[in-house]
Amino acid sequence: MGLMIHQEKITPELRRKLEKLCPFGVITYDGVLSIAMGCKLCKQCVKNSDGAITFQQEKRAEVDKSLWKGVSVLVEQCKGNLHGVTLELLGKAKELASVINEPVYAVVIGSDVKGLGKELASYGADKIFIYDNPALRDFTIEPYAGCLSDFIAKVKPCVIMVGATNIGRSLAPRVAARFHTGLTADCTALEMRKDTDLVQIRPAFGGNIMAMIRTPHTRPQFCTVRYKIFPKPEKKRVHGVAMEMMEVTDAMCTSRCTIIKIAEKPKDIDISEADVIVQCGRGVKSQGDLAIVERLAKIIGAQMACTRPLVESGWFGPKRQIGLSGRTIKSKLLITVGVSGAVQTVAGMKGSDCIIAINKDPFAPIFDVAHYGFVGDLYEIIPGLIAEIERRK
């Protein structure tokens, strides 16, 4: 799409008018009228040129949506153990598929992974497609992309849901590019329309707006979703499992990467899995004052967490941050201390079962999502809270 200048319609008067009219100053005249690259397509020149400048909309080929059926989930597993995000995506896939009365597919890539079929079916997969080969034991981008591309070409799923993990974030864009289709990363909500268009919702502009993104002209529709965004579905007893073993060719297993050694990474803290969390915000005046909050966390058996400014100040490591650029949690209990409740932070915590907020500003946004709130100075409230807990213990 772009602007078309009909030079034969440009008069001296119109030229001067358009040069003054352009808010970006990109319309110039040097024998012929031209529009520079700084044009923002505000279309003021189109509206005021009496047809001398027109907007040309590119015609795109429409996809036959009836050929693309089913909501698919890329299964992430390690040594036969399913990643939690896979189960959450299966639950959401079942909900989306019910809107358009289509099946839920699970795509498994790995070695000796046939045994995962029954568990995937018990969490909502209607059919499991398995790429099982010793060459797929460890994740390498080219073979895994080849298998997923093969599945898409043969099955033609309407939607591909991928966990926003290190593997998912590597694989999804590579395969989406092969099919010249869209990909929305880090979705926080998904909705299905009757015409099979997936509404992919995610924060934009630093979390100040929620963008609603669709891919109406291409298929499949790709999205990645973080762990702990959707609830894990209930496991159901299944009697039969529909599985299809897919052919893995030598060409699909070809890779320019060679895995020389795999070293187990030492287990680190993961606040995403914590049941009880105490989160600090900018209301904590100094790093030394964290001691009082840490004492509260210790006596209730909680993990310590924080907001982004405290990571930037060097008080906490980035793995302790809750929010869009940190971790998403679904704790049973979250106590926020001096946290204002910015949109970016709330997006990572709102799934918690019980949120207790401590803030001296009664109008702080955190109270809009908190189940219980203490309005007051944390330096007075926390010592009193600690004393009461210890007395009751």
Structural account:
There is one protein chain. This protein has 393 residues and is of the alpha/beta class. It contains 11 helices and 21 strands. Helix 8 runs parallel beside helix 11. It is globular. The relative contact order is 0.09.
List keywords for this structure.
7-stranded parallel β-sheet, globular, alpha/beta, 393 residues, single chain, 5-stranded parallel β-sheet, 11 helices
Query: If you compute it from the alpha carbons, what radius of gyration comes out, rounded to the nearest whole angstrom?
Result: 27 Å
Decide which structural class fits the backbone: alpha/beta
How many runs of DSSP E, i.e. beta strands? 21
Kindly report the average pLDDT value: 93
From the N-terminal CA to the C-terminal CA, the straight-line distance is 69 Å
Low-confidence stretches: none
Which sheet architecture does the biggest sheet show? 7 strands, parallel
Estimate the strand proportion.
Answer: 15-25%
Strand adjacency order, main sheet = 11-15-10-5-8-9-16
Level of helix content? 25-40%
* Morphology call: globular
